[in-house]
Each structure stands twice: as structure tokens, then as C-alpha cells.
Amino acid sequence: MTVSVGSALSTAEIYDWSVVSGLGVGKDDFSRGFLGSQQAGSDGRLLTGFDPTTLIGKKGTRTLDRMTSLVIATAGMVLDGGLVEPQARESVGLVLGTNTGSIASIVDFTRDTFVQERPYLVNPADFPNTVMNSAAGRTAIWYGLRGLNSTIAAGHLTGLVALRYASRMIRLGYADTLLVGAVEEVSDAVSVGVQVTRGHRAAAPGGGVNPLGEGCVLFLLGGRGGAGGGTAAAELVDFEFGTAELDADTPALSAALDRTIRALLLRNALRPEDIALVSLAQSGDGTLDSAELAAVDQALGGPGVGRRIVAADRTGNSFSALGAFQLAAAMAVAATDRPAGDPVRPCLITSLGIDGSVGCALVRV
Description:
By secondary structure, this protein is an alpha/beta fold. The protein is 35% helix and 20% strand.
């Protein structure tokens, strides 16, 4: 089954973006790290020594958890990029993807109810960090953003779903300018959860798995000609999502993703050979990764169509933020490979979840 949720008439465009990840701080660091020879490892996937005060200052940071600090730091770099005037921030909204919020904050707060002398002797200032939409809300307060504020959770597909939601809000007139993206953090609690999940899932092709990754990616999204009159770097054209059965095998998942890709191309009058770039998820789950590769080859007519890139090879598997990293990687590649003056080219971004959900996005970069 496929569900059409986009429109070929969408005019949501990306005018700026930024990243905080193990590859560095800012889009330039990310682009250099992704396009260079750096492989996924302790310097590419984890934020070692991350100190948010160097980016956002010390004032007001005492009660911020790590995930919220990541979002605030990334949002600040986009807002300070010159396309949003300080007096115009009130009209800016925020759409943030995160599957659960900060698991570390949830676990730490819950543990305090057991280890303190009385269950209620917890630090009330830590409670807001346990709420899933805390990072989006506190970031909006930090910068005075009074536009639409939403938190999106959809497992592996979170990044694409957040981009779809934000583009629809702009296309339907509910927002003019949005920060949209996703965030994920690595902690001991997250590592334990992933180990339990992977205990009954197959390894990736070749016997390995992409290590866990973390970071925040945010894009400045506006309508055509919006975002301070800047030049658009990319356009979110259309999206398509579908489902397979829960715990479906590789052929069933592959068939579901194949159908969504074909539907997306058909609706936008594109041939497989028109796709210049494919940004794959390849999250490290053997069933999902094999299904993704098979579906893309089947829908596009072979592995030779479209350049294939894998963000997780550099950033690790950032779960709910993976789709946002995939788009960031595509924009980094396009900015380097496209000759000056050449028109933007169609790019396909694909994603699959362990719940049987599949999805793809059509982006012009």
C-alpha cells in the first residue's frame, strides 16, 4: 500500500542549513568531513567534547540537557546566517524530528525517583527535559521564535516525515519560514536499547553494522522567493510513503519501497534516468539495507542509474535524524559536483523502518 502525501506543486525551498555532528560544527565542516576520506568512527559519529557554551554562551544553560543544547546551537548558526533579520524571528517556526526526545534525560530522572531518599525528592528543573517536545519548545523560547512549533516522531523515517510536514505547512499557508530538521543523541541508555533491538535483527550486508551516530541537522525552509530574498539551495518537491507488514522480510519491504519510488517518479513525470543522485539510509540493519538496495535498483533499472551516497558511512546510524543527515549529505555533494550555472538536479532520498514503513523524498539540489 502506498499513501500519497506530497504534491508536485510544492514550492518549499531550502535557503540555508547547518549541522552539529561528529564531523564538526557547521555545514562547511560537515561537507568537508563527508566528502573527505574520513570514515565513520569516534571522530565522525560521536560528539566528543561537545561544549554548547562555546556556541551559545553560559547564560541560561544550567538546566539544558545535551539534546536541547544541540538543537539550540544548530538553530543559532542558521538564524545567524544572514537570511533571517533579528526582528523577523517572531514569525519563524520550528519543526523538529526526534523519536523520543532525550532518552538519557528520561532515564536519569526516573532513576532519581528510586535512588533519592524519597521518590519526590527529584530536581524539578530536570523534568522538562523528559518531555519529547522540550527541545523544540525551549529552542523557540531561546530565540523568540513564535511561529508554528511541532515535534515529529516516526522512527527511522522521522527526518523525511518532518520535512514533508514542514513543506506542507508552507505550501498550505500555515507558515512562511521554518527551521526544520532532526536531532539524536548517543547515551548509555540508547546503546542498551539498540543492543536489545539488534539482538533479533540481522546484521548488515557483509556482516557489519553502522555504529551509532548523533547530531542535529536544521534547514531554513521557506516558500519560493522567501527567506530574506536569499537564493534557494534546494527544493523539496514531493514525498511518498508506504507500508509493508510488521517484521516483513526483505522481498516484501523491497516491493513496498519499489512501489513508493515508482509512484513518486510517475507523479512528477520523471524517468529513472533523470535521477542524478540517490541518498540511501543503509542504517545497519541487514533486512532493511538489503531491501533498500534491491528496491532502488529495481525502480531505477539498475545500480548504474544515479550516483549513490550513504550518509551513515560518515555519521553513523543516527536513527530519527538519519533522514536529515541524508539530505545534508546530498546537498554537500551537489554543491561540490554541480558546475556553476548548471540547473538543480533531481535527487532521491530513501528510508525504511523496522515497523514496515517505507518512504522516499524527491529533492532538487
